[in-house]
């Protein structure tokens, strides 16, 4: 069973294996709420929302978790919905999309070349 915990920048380093992502991860943490999905001690994915009046969603998934994509998508969608509701965000946007199918499953719709929810 997986568990959601608050995001810390070291989680992004563990996913990417690259410490050069640390400044971006620290920006993510300073700019709004983030979460990490764990299976025991193993990190499956992390994401969150940078808040600049409107929310900007971000997300990383650890390699090798493709077989768990449905549960990761569900947990991510539910967590983003909670952040959007709790922070009373009118809209959240996402860009640099790797998979349009994935982002649409998270509740985003493409409008004028940008994904909004």
What would the principal axes of the Cα set say about the shape?
A: globular
From the alpha carbons, calculate the radius of gyration and give it in angstroms.
13 Å
Number of domains: 1
Count of β-strands: 7
Helix content: 25-40%
**Regarding CATH, which class?**
Alpha Beta
The CATH topology is given as Aminopeptidase
Q: How would you sum up this structure, described in words?
A:
This protein is α+β, with helices and mostly antiparallel strands and 117 residues long. The protein has one domain (2-116): Aminopeptidase, CATH 3.40.630.30. It contains 4 helices and 7 strands, in the order βααβββαβαββ. It has helices at residues 9-16, 22-31, 69-86, 100-105, and strands at 2-6, 34-39, 42-52, 54-61, 92-94, 109-111, 114-116. It has a 7-stranded mixed sheet, with helices on both faces. A hairpin with a 2-residue loop joins strand 2 (34-39) and strand 3 (42-52). The longest helix has 18 residues, at 69-86. The protein is globular. The mean pLDDT is 89.
Secondary-structure map:
Elements: E1 2-6, H1 9-16, H2 22-31, E2 34-39, E3 42-52, E4 54-61, H3 69-86, E5 92-94, H4 100-105, E6 109-111, E7 114-116
Parallel strand pairs: 4-5
Antiparallel strand pairs: 1-2, 2-3, 3-4, 5-7, 6-7
Helix pairs in contact: 1-2
Key structural traits:
Aminopeptidase; seven-stranded mixed sheet; 33% strand; 117 residues; 36% helix; alpha+beta; 4 helices
Write a short abstract of this structure.
This protein is α+β, with helices and mostly antiparallel strands. Helices cover 36% and strands 33% of the residues.
